């Protein structure tokens, strides 16, 4: 389970809106000052807002500006990462294969690969929009006295 702390920005009857700051591994790297990736990650650090279901908890227990811990399963991260990165690449390779199979000129083969990449990105977006609404993929609220068992029950 991957945990992240965040600040409550809104409390509603059945869910919280939590603001998190996206962190980068660059802050722990010794080459931080001389790395272009570190500079790019500092520019892109903006808060993210996440909707977290209360799963039957009393909403009056939470106040705006409270710090809470949310969690998501490693398998969820792995599946979404594979979909996000692998599906467009598969479509790219299929596009290149189709262009090559049709004995097209090199420029047209590259073009069919680019069309495949765009199609893969659109397909991935569609898949993640459809399956992303599944409750098992949503982050859950973890409290200090709870353990992984509650997360597994809440994810069902």
Automatic annotation (TrEMBL):
A Pfam family: RseC_MucC
Domain of life: Bacteria
Record flagged with keyword Membrane: yes
UniProtKB keywords: Membrane, Transmembrane, Transmembrane helix
TM region positions: 82-102, 108-128
Protein name according to UniProt: Transcriptional regulator
Organism: Sessilibacter corallicola
């Amino acid at each position: 389970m991957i945990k992240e702390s965040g600040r409550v920005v809104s409390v509603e009857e059945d869910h919280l809106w939590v603001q998190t700051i996206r962190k980068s591994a660059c802050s722990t790297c010794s080459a931080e000052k001389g790395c272009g990736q570190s500079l790019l990650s500092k520019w892109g650090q903006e808060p993210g807002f996440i909707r977290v279901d209360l799963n039957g908890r009393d909403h009056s227990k939470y106040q705006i500006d409270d710090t809470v811990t949310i969690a998501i399963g490693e398998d969820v991260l792995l599946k979404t990462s594979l979909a996000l990165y692998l599906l467009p690449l598969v479509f790219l390779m299929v596009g290149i294969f189709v262009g090559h199979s049709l004995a097209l000129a090199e420029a047209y083969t590259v073009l069919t690969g680019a069309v495949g990449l765009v199609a893969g990105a659109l397909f991935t977006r569609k898949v993640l929009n459809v399956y992303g609404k599944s409750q098992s993929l949503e982050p859950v609220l973890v409290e200090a006295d709870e353990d992984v068992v509650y997360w597994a029950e809440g994810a069902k």
